[in-house]
Known about the structure:
Elements: E1 24-28, H1 33-44, E2 48-55, H2 70-84, E3 88-92, H3 94-110, H4 117-136, E4 141-143, E5 148-153, E6 156-161, H5 178-182, E7 184-185, H6 193-202, H7 224-229, E8 237-241, E9 247-251, E10 262-263, E11 272-278, E12 283-288, E13 296-307, E14 316-320, E15 328-333, E16 338-346, E17 353-358, E18 361-368
Parallel strand pairs: 1-2, 1-4, 2-3, 4-7, 8-12
Antiparallel strand pairs: 5-6, 6-18, 8-9, 10-11, 11-12, 13-16, 13-18, 14-15, 14-17, 15-16, 17-18
Family: Belongs to the MnmA/TRMU family.
Domain tRNA-specific 2-thiouridylase MnmA-like central: 226-288
Keywords: ATP-binding, Cytoplasm, Disulfide bond, Nucleotide-binding, RNA-binding, Transferase, tRNA processing, tRNA-binding
Amino acid sequence: MQVKKDQSSFNTSELRPTSNSKTKVFVALSGGVDSAVSAALLKEQGYDVTGVYMKNWSGDDFGIQADCPWDEDQTDAASVCKHLGIPFRSFNFERHYREKVVEYFFDEYSKGRTPNPDVMCNKEIKFKLFLNKAISEGADLIATGHYAQVKKEGETYKLLAGKDNNKNQVYFLYSITQDQLSKTLFPVGHLEKSEVRKLADKFGLPNKNKPDSQGICFIGEIDVLKFLMANIPKKHGKIVDIETNQEVGEHEGIYFYTIGQRAKIPNQTQAYYFCAKDLDLNIMYVCHGENNNELLKSVVEVEDWHWIGNPPSKVELSGVIRYRQKTQSGKIDIKNKKFIFDKPQRAVASGQSLVIFEGTECLGGGIIV
Length: 369
């Protein structure tokens, strides 16, 4: 997700008061480079730092044990702490992760929606369970390796886009609260990814060359379709061309596909894309062309608005419907739970998040209906 830069918003000296050795910070270490550099920077700045690995998933009965790298990640996190000379701890949230994230994941897909497990993981695990346990264990603050920034204005905390447009992760953080922001540090948010890699080398971190993870939060890189089919029964139905109303194929279950995804239909000379679902009739509709009008939508309905501060007073704002998308201008209708984009958006998927911005500030968002 990319956000147009407002340089005046990125005075990093305003993001947090000067650190001191009496401020105790628990850093969420994933085993990756971003969180490791976060811990190193905080130690360098004089904080009392403890590294914490959250064990949230180890595979087992869902059939993806081979794809779950938790043991390697935990070892890497412990190695980083040893290298930095800071305490290492491990918190086990597997039961909570299964209840709050994995069950949500399956429940949403079974309803024909496309869930966002990273948003839910941040909401329920990192900034609720981890934050609360860290504070109860004596921490003053927590820190993560997210590419995001926090700025305090008066008594209000604002969530700002990270400097690196390609890694900016505020899309996944829109459900955060004022209290949570007041206790959170994002040490690499003002840096480009290339700068973080250089710092990892400078600090001599043992995981400095570890590649970025692109998988589901804490589960890793998995074949999502295979994962779903192993746990949700197939329910075959028709694939129908929405423009001709002719049946052109058969699907294995509405919940296995998302809007905008290319449809693999035999004996077709022109590519089809899924553009709509009829859950009652168990029909998947397709259209020809990647940018067919059937895939475009200007008015996006949402549910469960969440605002980081006060609800926005302005009508003309910007929004995004997916990670790494550039902000798109439009108008918000809070009362009627809608956002009207100035230009139609491709492949708006129910269950995903619509996140609202004013400039570089993330105001909040909601779930797409």
